[in-house]
Amino acid sequence: MSYSSFTKSLLSGPGVAELYERATRNQFLELAGQGRLPRETLSQWLAQDRLYCQAYARFIGGLISRVHLPRAADRPVAETMEWRVLTLLHNALAGIMAEIQFFEKTAGDYGLGLAAVGSEMEGETVGFGPYKTTQCYIDLFDSFAAQPGARADKPLLEGLLVLWATEVAYLDSWSYAKSQKPQYPDPSQDLDGGALRKRLIDNWTSDQFRAFVKEIEECLEALAARADDTEEVLLAGSLSVFKKVLVLEEEFWPIVA
Question: Where does the record place the Thiaminase-2/PQQC domain (predicted)?
Answer without folding.
Answer: 21-254
